[in-house]
Task: structure prediction
Amino acid sequence: MNSSDRIAVQRYAAAYNELSATNEQAQRRAEDLQAAAGALEAVRGYMTSPRITAPQKKQAVRAALKNAPETAAFVELLIDAKRYALLAAVARRVGELLDERLGIVRAEVVSARALSPEQKKQTEAALSARYGGKVEASFSDDPALLGGLKIKCRGELIDGSLQGRLAKLQEELTH
Result:
């Protein structure tokens, strides 16, 4: 994605987010937009085809999103602006703005083996203390880590894995 598209995604997402007066409205709208992006992904070829006219695309959007007319209107706006290809990125950014609005911090935690519910709770509590706000982490496991955790949060990578420590030790010993 080029810088012009990134700026457009930011602006469209901010405008869509600002349509909501309450957090509940913002959450509903974000869910609607995510669902629309998912539903329309199945017909991406049709929606991005230069052979299909804008009115035909809008008709398809209205049919697919008949239960979410506000979202359909927003997607039609993207079609008119020839920015439909940005829909998935706008939906992701709207989700990020919703998290900011609700004070939620997202984290990805990878461990060598599956963590117990108590370990997950402790990890989220430690991350909440570090980053502030409520941390919602997604957990996965990767046996290649050997032990420890790798955590991605707010663009930061915390590598507390045994594999990472060994790599760091090797680098220190060889340099």
